[in-house]
Design brief:
Two copies of one chain form a homodimer. By secondary structure, chain A is mainly beta. Chain A has an eight-stranded antiparallel beta barrel with strand order 2-6-5-4-3-7-8-9. The first copy, chain A, has helices at 80-89, 156-159, and strands spanning 5-6, 10-22, 34-43, 48-54, 57-67, 70-78, 96-105, 108-116, 123-128, 142-145. In chain A, strand 5 and strand 6 (70-78) form a beta hairpin.
Chain lengths: 168, 168
């Protein structure tokens, strides 16, 4: 989430990120895993509304239309107990569960998400960039790029979870 | 918005309210009018997500399914500038605009909303209650009850604004 400006209780940012599959298991010894649970209150093309818990924190995030790999994003921290109740009572099912590791590699931050629940078996790495044409040094544990494959969009992993991909 | 518990940055509440048309113009001399602008990021039956500006403040509000006149609600304050940008770029159009007066009458708070824009001409009063069977003293400027008429739900005033009702 690059180029953000801090707001009173949240921030607006333009999100520029690329998404990859993993290569091997060397990444498992890096970073500190944190449990993320997230669900959607809207998954339309024009706007998504996401509620998330990350460890002991809760967040509400609004995103607009993607333009290339850029996307406008607004994120606000909310009480963890509210986020839990919203996930339980209001969010579309199933909820997405994943364990996230945040790893710095040659000046860039990589987030590795190991999914559980309905997306068990899926592992994805995302890197946050400052500009669309920014050069990246690929860590040795990074595999094929899937930035533009809609099956891997978080919002689509609700409708078509990874454990059901081979049934199609 | 009765029975709320204060959260770190917002609150969860059960909303119990009744809605009325107005009678005469005596209410116009009461309260301090504040401009509200609001739009929806989701208007489904299961969940609504609303962004609102009230004077110089901004809010994000999530509501669940209505059960009778009760409805679970989560509200969070966000920066006014974010709310303006979300209304402009992300919310479904048209935006609802209204001038709200908050008036105390015999121990209860009444909110009178005078709509502008696409709902020009519509004036509604809402009263917030602590329980479904609470007795209310009707102020003399309160007219017909419309609590259960879906045309008057705020979320429906986006799809079918008041100025178009007689065209149906």
């Amino acid at each position: 989430m690059a180029a953000w400006r801090k707001g009173e209780r949240g921030f607006m940012s333009i999100e520029i990120e690329r998404k990859f599959l993993l290569n091997g298991n060397a990444w498992r010894t890096l970073g500190s895993p944190v449990l993320y649970r997230q669900g959607y209150l809207n998954r339309s093309k024009e706007r998504t509304v996401r509620v998330r818990t990350a460890g002991e924190k809760g967040y509400l995030t609004l995103k607009g239309i993607s333009r290339g790999i850029k996307r406008r994003e607004y994120e606000y921290e909310i009480p963890k107990a509210d986020a839990d109740a919203i996930l339980r009572d209001l969010a579309e099912k199933p909820i997405i569960e994943k364990t996230r590791r945040r790893i710095e590699y040659k000046g860039l931050f990589w987030e590795i998400d190991e999914f559980s629940g309905e997306n068990q078996g899926l592992i994805l790495a995302e890197v946050e960039l400052d500009s669309e044409d920014q050069k990246i040094d690929r860590p040795p544990w990074i595999g094929e790029e899937v930035t533009h494959d809609p099956r891997y969009y978080n919002s689509n992993l609700v409708l078509f979870p990874y454990t059901k991909w081979d049934l199609k």
